[in-house]
Each structure stands twice: as C-alpha cells, then as structure tokens.
Amino acid sequence: MNKISVIGAGSFGTALAVMLAAKGHEVTMWGRRKSQLLLMEETRENPHYLPGIHLPEKLLFSHSMEDALNNAEIAIFAVPAQKFRQVFTDAVNFMDRDTVVVNVAKGIEKSSLMRLSQVARNVMKDVRYVTLSGPSHAEEIAKRLPTTVAVASNDNELGLMVQEAFNTDRFRVYTNDDIIGVELGGALKNIIALGAGISDGMGFGDNAKAAMMTRGLVEMCRLGSAMGADINTFSGLTGLGDLIVTCTSMHSRNRRCGIMLGQGIPAAEAIEKVGMVVEGISTAEAAEALASKYDIEMPITESICALLRGETNPVEAVEMLMGRKTKNEMHIF
Fold first, then answer.
1. What is the pTM of this model?
2. How many CA atoms lie within 13 A of 313 on its CB side?
C-alpha cells in the first residue's frame, strides 16, 4: 500500500480519497479552507461537495500542505485547471523529487494555452507526471458504482504503477500511451457538454443533442490531431466515453450550466447557481484561441464562446450552426 496525498478537497478529490482509503492506502487530504477540513474531520462528510458520503475514519486531513505531502509516494492534484499552476508551484516546495504526480483536473490553461502536463513540467522540469481521465462522476465513484478510467504518462512505468495503485473491483483503470489525446479529450468534452446543456435548456430533443455530441467529437478530433494526439484516443474512454457521460448526466456541472444558458440565464448567474467551477467556460476560450492558432474550424466552440461573451443569444447561435454551408460529413479535416 502507498502513502497518498490528495491536494484539493472538492468532490472528485474526496471521492478518490474515499476509494483509495477503502483499498488500504494511507491517504491524507489537503484543502485551502481549514474550516472545511475541520468539518469533514468532525462529521466524516463533505457536505458541500459530496453530501451523503461517509468518509472513512482512517482518512486523514491536514491544512498544512507540507504535512500533507510529507513522504508521499503519490500526490493527487484535484484542483481546478486554472488554479493548477499556482497550487502545484506551492506543492513543489514540499514534495520529494520521486513523488508521482497524478493530475485529475480536465482543462487547458487559458493564459498560456498549455495542457496541464506542460504546465507541470514548466514548473518542475523532472516531474513524474500521470494524468487520470475518463467517464467518472465523483458521486458514483464514492458510491462504489462501476467506473472505468484511463491513465496516461510519458513514462509507461509510472502509468502502470498508478494503474496498480488505483485499480479496484469497482474502479477499473486502463493505461494509454497518448497523454496529449487523453488530456485534450477530458478538457474539450466539457465545451460540448455546455452545448448539450444549452440544447436541453432550449427544449430541443434527442436528435439535436446527438448531433451536438457527434459534431462536437469532430471538433475534438480536429484540434487533437493538430496538436499531435492520436485520433483513436478520442473514440476511447477519455474521449467518447467522457463526452457521453458529461453531455447526458445531471451530475455534470457543465451540462447544468448549459441548461441555464439555454434558458436565457446570463453566464455569470448560471455559474453562480451551479456553485462550483465550470471548467468548460475557460476551456472554451482556450480552445477557440487554439483553433485560431492551428487554423482549424470549431464552429460549436466558437458559437458557445460568442454566447458566453454576450455577442449572440441561444436562438441566433443555433441558426448560425444550422445555416452553415453544407458539406460532406466525412470531410473531418
């Protein structure tokens, strides 16, 4: 068994901590708000982010990042993508050089347009980095409902190590050699989930949502291919699998936010009502910039960005997408 630190006390970090502690690992959680950690320790519940889930007595909590990371063999980073650089920069001061970093955030850094593995290496050149992604709602992981994910790393041995450490009879872990595709799949599907939610909020049916998901997958493949990913990755767990679950489930913050956008609620108000970080918002802006950089078409992404900026409304966005020049479906690139 391993000594594992979980950096971030949101829903996903908590769910993984519960699962890994139940497997027998020594798990310590760190969060930026001491009051939240004290409440979790006293009540054995994370009422804001993961209500109704009992936290094992053996699960430890620390408001000191230094103490939480002391002698950790694995450090799981479960913080919002746009906060990752800041938190990881702080954590590097307390991590052993051989600590394996497992990042579960799904996003692209908006300011630099870097994937999160690139951010990590920008901060710590020799970081031992693994990304974990796939169709994995925290609520279901914590309830021990069957879940399947993939891990990817530039170092295959690290991927295998994390696979062994995380795999259980209810949490199946595959390895994947394509870290670019795995990271982009997890990030870009959140944009399409916003679109699927907008469609639902406007009262459209299954036909519209199926088209949104399918053509959204095309956009994911276009950008992924341009950035060096293996296009086959997008038909796997971290692409199509994550896209399906995020576009169809009410567990999805991005879909819930999209539903409100489709009902005409302004973006800022919709985000506030969701009550948690909506990763698709920042990722959409980053993806739009990357599409321009690589000179590729991402009309769904561009429409969502225009809607978020208040440059259009849901009805006009749909009319624009449906009125585009006709083309052959197979002309993906």
1. 0.95
2. 5
| E strands, 65-218, in order | 74-77, 100-103, 128-133, 147-152, 171-176
Q: Tell which residue, 218, 167, 161, has the closest CA to residue 188.
A: 218
Give whole-number Cα distances, 231 to 8, 155, 163, 175, 217, in Å. Answer: 31, 20, 23, 16, 11
Which H/E stretch holds residue 251? none
How far is 109 from 92, CA to CA, in rounded Å? 19
Q: Name the residue type at position 142.
A: A
Q: Which of 189, 209, 293, 327 is catalytic?
A: 189
**pLDDT tens-digit map of 103-115:** 999 999 999 999 9
* Mean of all residue pLDDT scores within the chain: 96
Residue 253 pLDDT:
94
Cα 256 to Cα 247: distance, rounded to the nearest angstrom: 9
* Residues comprising the chain, all counted: 333
Establish whether 189 is a catalytic residue.
yes
| Residue partners of 5: CB distance under 8 A and separation at least 6 | 27, 28, 29, 30, 68, 69, 72, 74, 75, 76
Q: Phi-psi category of 275—alpha, beta or left, where left has phi over 0 and alpha has psi -120 to 50?
A: left
Q: Tell the burial category of 16 from Cβ atoms under 10 Å away from its Cβ (0-12, 13-18, 19+).
A: buried
- Residue 28, strand partner residues: 5, 60
Q: What is the pLDDT of residues 183-211, one digit of tens each?
A: 999 999 999 999 999 999 999 999 999 99
CA distances from 52 to 95, 142, 143, 173, 229 (A): 32, 10, 10, 25, 39
List, for residues 134-175, the tens digit of each pLDDT value.
Answer: 999 999 999 999 999 999 999 999 999 999 999 999 999 999
Q: How confident is the model at residue 95 (pLDDT cuts 50, 70, 90)?
A: very high
- Spatial distance between the Cα atoms of 195 and 117, rounded to a whole number of angstroms: 26
